[in-house]
Amino acid sequence: MKILVINAGSSSCKYQLFNMDDQSVLCSGVVERIGQPMGKLSHKIAPGTDKEEKIVVERPFPTHVEGMEDVISLLLDSEKGVIQDKSEISAIGHRVLHGGEAITDPVLIDEKVKEIIRDCFPLGPLHNPANLMGIDVAEKLFPGVPNVGVFDTEFGMTLAPEAYLYPLPYSLYEELRIRRYGFHGTSHKYIAKATAAFLGKPLSELNSITMHLGNGSSMSAVQNGKCIDTSMGLTPLEGLMMGTRCGSIDPAIVPFMMEKKGMTPQEADTVLNKQSGLLGICGTSDMRDVHANIEKGDEKAALAFKMLTRSIKKVLGSYFFLLGNVDSIVFTAGIGENDEFVREAVCEGLEPFGIKVDKKENHTRKPGARVISTPDSRIPVLIIPTNEELEIATTTMRIVEESQK
Fold it and tell me: Which is the catalytic residue, given 70, 152, 229, 327?
């Protein structure tokens, strides 16, 4: 079975085509700058293998339709295509940000599901409209092919009321569904399953803390295979300090800032989401630049690094108290998998709690899942690469097969 995975953004569309017989990626790519004067399609054949080949197409893509039409042409190309006919694609899996409380599991997409995605536009104004657009494009270009929605909020739907409710008037939850939803759920779910497999224990018995650290970052506490707490909230702004997002702050800062600076709600939102975090403190949101600037003696870069790792360590500590028994601490995503300095700083000083990182192993870069703690560490510290696209593809295949029984 071949599964196409689509992650549509407002001006971009990422995709991967999987052969689920061996879970190999036949091709992957991204259409960028959709709707701008000049667009770009970057297409990789057999990515990550010694046969990898890249094709770049630059031309205007007025809408997502034109971009995906070019993708289909590359898939079917007589010389470099990976399929001979569109009918070889059995299903299409879509990453969708927000399903609210109405969708708690992956689903076959129909008009009712699309309406729920539309109803969640206020909760995911940047992502849900683009996700729905991707679904509409797929339905137009692949008529009759089943589409499956895999929702970022799904993993957090196992939170108990005391975990997902905010201490606000209960009427705000009843009227506006203001609650913690959590995001990066597809990644956290994949990592939970991968961690259980790595440790050789059933998922239903796994207690683990996952740190998905990238430009956007979140953490989750997993108890018996289920999410019992997660750092992001109503939106992806809450929680850890991130690349351009402030994370959790005193909420009174927002009206204070608006009053003193004469800001509109939208302007304040822009500050919190796009001008804060690492960028706001030291002028860059890229951890590679932060490290380079620290080497040059940049005090603000050093401060930003300390603030970032401190915010991670604070949540890590709280999750230990929530879980009680912890089987593993897992680093994943761009920073989590590749930044040994962040990992070292987060775990520094945890030796009295039985958590010991092997500095040499931590500073050695290797592919795949691995242990970076010492043999006598009471709790193993792991690096497990995330693969949200594979999780979406696997889920899509399962949903389609179940629907055909």
Answer: 152
